[in-house]
Amino acid sequence: MKKLMTLIFTTSTFTVFAQNKIPLLKTSNSIKPEIEQVASDYYNHFDNIKGEQTDETQNTIEYQSKILPKGALESSITQIKGLYNVYSWQAVMLNTDDFEKAVEKYKQIYHELNGAGFIMHDHKVWKFKGFYDTPDNARPFASSILEPDLDDKVLRRLKIEVALNYNISEWSVKVLVYEKENDADIRPAENSSQ
């Protein structure tokens, strides 16, 4: 009987300790899910993530963004008025007077987003890729532009940009989503006949 009680006590103690072990949840600091949400809503003029209007000028309307990536200080949507309303989204990820800290954040975001696949409005996965623009303290900006790895020129206009800018006394790291023609498509051919 004593052996049976010891066995039951040992088994129930082991079971209690085994059940009390809670697996450690890994918390991700990734901004990719939020950027994917923003990029996939671009062709809807950001209607699903557009918040309250915050400002309006003759040429632009500013809105709050309902998407604020992890660690971001602020995010907004800008509508440029015109024949074709053009929209852009941006998030300020860091403001600092420390150049090295700004470069580290810029590089980290670039590596996280470059080559990442995003599920887009057409329910297909688009991979965004681009070259790394190496920051230099002697220059007031660096800009790494990622574009979808697609054959369709119209869809390739969508860009995700990781930017590092110097303003007055501090460095700012931003992520932007917007549409832009490729430079090669808007520049006249150098060898064209006149």
Can you describe this structure?
By secondary structure, the chain is α+β, with helices and mostly antiparallel strands. The chain has one domain. The chain has 4 helices and 9 strands; from the N terminus they run H-H-E-E-E-E-H-E-E-E-E-E-H. The chain has a 9-stranded antiparallel beta sheet with strand order 1-2-3-4-9-8-7-6-5, covered by helices on one side. It is globular, with a radius of gyration of 24 Å. The termini are far apart. Residues 4-27 have low confidence and may be disordered.
Give short descriptive properties of this protein.
194 residues
List the helices and strands and how they pair.
Elements: H1 2-20, H2 32-40, E1 50-56, E2 60-65, E3 74-80, E4 86-96, H3 99-113, E5 117-119, E6 125-129, E7 141-148, E8 158-167, E9 170-179, H4 183-186
Antiparallel strand pairs: 1-2, 2-3, 3-4, 4-9, 5-6, 6-7, 7-8, 8-9
Q: Return Rg in Å.
A: 24 Å
End-to-end separation in angstroms reads 105 Å
Number of domains: 1
Number of strands: 9
The succession of helices and strands, N to C, reads HHEEEEHEEEEEH
Which strand order spans the largest sheet, edge to edge or round the barrel?
Answer: 1-2-3-4-9-8-7-6-5
Low-confidence segments, ≥5 residues, pLDDT <50? Answer: 4-27
| Structural class by secondary-structure content | alpha+beta
Shape: globular
Q: How many helices in DSSP terms?
A: 4
Sheet with the most strands, sense and barrel status:
9 strands, antiparallel
**Average pLDDT over all residues:** 84
Beta-strand portion reads 25-35%
Helical residue percent band:
10-25%
